[in-house]
Amino acid sequence: MSRVANPLESRTSLSYASSEAREDSNYRLSALTDAALDHLVEKIMTSPSTSTTTPSRHAFERRLEEVRISKTDLNALVMDYLISEGYPSAAQKFASEANIQPTSAVDSIQERVAIREAIYRGDIQTAIERINELNPMRYKLLEKDETLHFALLRLQLVELIRSCGTTSPDDPTPAINFATTELAPRAPTNPQFLEDLERTMTLLIFERKDLPPQIATLLEPKLRKDVAQRVNEALLKEQGERTKAKLFNLVHLRAWSEQKAREAKKDLPEHMGFGLDLMQNGHGKNNHDGMQSNGEAEAMVA
Fold it and tell me: What value does the mean pLDDT take over residues 56-72?
């Protein structure tokens, strides 16, 4: 059933679409990513035809053409991304099509997705409760990670302030009471906590249209996304998993290697793209809206 999105949701429709729609969208994105990788493999494995009218290729490009990339490795890279970033249904579909096994239980992915969804829609209390329910017999994650707990509580305060004028017109009492009971006792323990609390309470001083830019950012979807990403990484760490998909490390390594090679004056082509022409041509336009987005709407990537 369709619903009318509120102004916040209209700015990031992908983040707040229905779970089913987002699942299909993200599987198409993962399929497109795989297609782009296939395209890269094809480019690497196909030798260019010689022509007297075609400029000679750079020596580095000729060496690159000799590289053979394993399809198995590419499939594993895509699967690792889907699992780490929280796309359980897409991971299942991809595993079936690629004839591989997911490296993590789908149930554990679903738990992270449910928590992320709660944060995306501003239901922070539900997110906190679900986090605490994950391992009730163990020392709870939020009790160990006070910084993460404060970030969630501060976001909950932002959501209460956002609701002022909606449920109780111009009544800041719920927000003030929450700040007094939940955040004020924690603020003195960390200078950053105190600064964050003060900035957040500033939202109650100005009219929404008159907020200074550095304060107005607290009401933007990016804060939800950032906190959701931190929670996802903390849960992965708690489960003994990597906090980042391998793909991110490879991209960073690729960029670092090129930078170092150029600093050393190595002979490289003037421009070195990643070879994902399908993505660059607009067929896979990224709709993450600043959240590497990233139900299964966006992966929580930055």
Answer: 79
Closest C-alpha to 71, from 116, 104, 41, 113: 41
- The Cα 224–Cα 124 span in angstroms is 9
- pLDDT at position 5, please? 42
CB-CB contact of 31 with 283 (8 Å): no
pLDDT at 126: 95
Gap between the Cα atoms of 183 and 204, Å rounded: 16
Q: Using one digit for the tens of pLDDT, what is the confidence trace for 119-140?
A: 999 999 999 999 988 866 555 8
Residue, of 208 and 182, whose pLDDT is higher: 182
User: Which pTM value belongs to this model?
Assistant: 0.60
Here the tokens at position 107 are 């149930």
Q: Which residues contact 71 (CB under 8 A, 6 or more apart)?
A: 41
Q: What angle do CA 117, 151, 193 make, to 5 degrees?
A: 170
- Helix, strand or coil, per DSSP, at residue 18: coil
Helix axes 88-98, 71-85, angle to 10 degrees: 160
> Residue 167, Cβ neighbours under 10 Å: how many?
9
Provide DSSP, 136-195. Answer: TTS--HHHH-HHHHHHHHHHHHHHHHHHBTTTBTT--HHHHHHIIIIITTTGGG-HHHHH
Residue carrying structure tokens 């400029």? 55
What single-letter amino acid sits at 127? A
